[in-house]
Amino acid sequence: MEKLNEFLGSVSSFLWGIPLLVLIVGTGIYLTIRVGFLQVRLLPTALRLVFSKKHDKTAEGDITQFQALTTALAATVGTGNIVGVATAVVLGGPGAVFWMWFSAFFGMATKYSEAILAVRFRVKDAKGQMAGGPMYYLEHGLKQKWLAVLFAVFGAIAAFGIGNGTQSNSVAGVVKSTFGLDTWITGAVLTIFTALVILGGIKSIGNVTAVFVPIMALFYLLAGLIVMVMNITAIPDAFATIFKMAFSGEAAAGGAIGAAIRYGIARGVFSNEAGLGSAPIAAAAAKTDLPGRQALVSMTQVFLDTFLICSITGITIVMSGMYKDTSLAANELTSASFGHFLGDFGPYVVAIGLIFFASSTIFGWAYYGEKCFQYLFKNPSLLIIYRIAFVIMVFIGSVVSLDLIWTFSDITNALMAIPNLIGLLGLSGVIVYETKRISDKLKEEKEAAKAAKSN
C-alpha cells in the first residue's frame, strides 16, 4: 500500500506539474483575449445578475441562475479556501497569494467559457431535466465522443474522492480536534444530512445551497473583515510583502521564485476549479434565455472564491507572520493565524468555516458525479445506485484515513481538466459568437431601460 501511494504520488506530481499549469493558465489567457477582457468589462453586470430578483420563468432549465451559482460555489468553496491557501504559502511563500490572484483573473474567462458551452450544448434527459457539461460539448460540439467519455469516467470517480471522502474526513477531523466529538458520530450526522439533500436531485441541492452557501461565505468573510479592521495598519505591509515575494522568491520553498508561481497557481486552480470542467455541469441546469447570461453569473464564482474568500485567508496569514514558524503544518497555519488576532476564538472560526465549506462541497460534487455517471449509463434507474454509494462513502471518509484516495483524486482531477481544456480551445469560436450575442442583448436591454426611464 505504501508503494502504491508513493507511485500515485509521483503520477500526481507529474500530472500537476508545469505543463498542465501552463495549459490551464495559457487557456485562460487565450480566452481572455478572444472575449476582449470580458471579466473586467462586464464584472459589474455579472454581479448585478447574480443578485437580481428578475428571473425569466419561461426559459428552459431546472433551477434559477442564483441556485446554479450557489450549487457550483458549494462544490468550489471547500478545504482549498482554508487549507489550500495555507499550503500555497507554506510551500511557495507569501508571494504565492499573488499568483493565486493571477491565475484567478484569467480563470474567470475560463469559467465563463465553460458555462457558455455547457448551456449551448445541454440536452434534456429521460426525466426531462437538463444535462450538460464538458461531456456534452465534447461530444456534440467538438464531435469527439471518446474525450467526452474520458471526462465522464474521471468525473464520476473524482466525485467520490475530492468531492466526498476527503471532505467528510476533513469535517470529522476538525470536529474531533476542536469539539472532541468522535469521528463516527460526525460521520453519521453528515451522512444522514447528505442523503436528505442529494436524494432529492438538483432542485433539492439548489434549494439547500441557495441558503447554505451565502451563510457560510458571509460568516467567514465577516470574521476575516473583523481581523482586518482591527489591524488595518498592517494591511499595506501585508500587500507589500505579497507583491515583493511574488517576484523575489524569498520565503518560498528552496528560495526559488518558481515555487511561488507553481504553488500559487496550483492551489488557486484547486480552489476555484477554473478549467477542471466541474462547475459547468451545474451551470447547464440554470434557467436562462442565452448561454452568455448564465456564463456571466458563473464567472463570478472565481471572483467570490479566490478574490474574496481565499484573499481573506491569505492576507490574514501574511499579516500574522505565522508562516515564518516552520513547526506549523499547513493545516495548522490558518488556525494559528486567526488565533494570533482573535485569541481562543480564532481556531473556532476556522473550524466552523471548514465544516461549512467541506460539507457544502459534498453536495455540489454529488450532482457533478451523478451527471457524469448518467452520461455513461443512460438507464435512469441506475442513478439511485450511484447516489446510495455516494452517501455511504461520506461515512467511510469520516472514519478512515484517505491519503491514497486524496492522491488518486488529484490524478482524476488532472485527467478531467485535459479533455475539458481541449474542448474550450477547440470551441473558442462558439464562445466568441455567444459572447457577441449576450453583448448585443445587454446593450439592447440597456437602451430599452434608458428609453423607458425617459418616457
Automatic annotation (TrEMBL):
Q: Which InterPro entries match?
A: Na/Ala_symport
Residues passing through the membrane, by range: 14-33, 72-92, 98-119, 146-163, 183-202, 209-232, 238-261, 302-323, 345-368, 388-408, 414-433
The compartments listed are: Cell membrane
Its membrane topology is listed as: Multi-pass membrane protein
Keyword Membrane set for record: yes
A GO molecular function held by the record = amino acid:sodium symporter activity
Q: Name one Pfam family in it.
A: Na_Ala_symp
Q: Superkingdom, according to UniProt?
A: Bacteria
Q: Name one GO cellular component term.
A: plasma membrane
Which PANTHER family does the protein's record reference? AGSS FAMILY TRANSPORTER, SODIUM-ALANINE, TRANSCRIPTIONAL REGULATOR, LRP FAMILY
| Family indicated by similarity | Belongs to the alanine or glycine:cation symporter (AGCS) (TC 2.A.25) family.
- The protein's name is Sodium:alanine symporter family protein
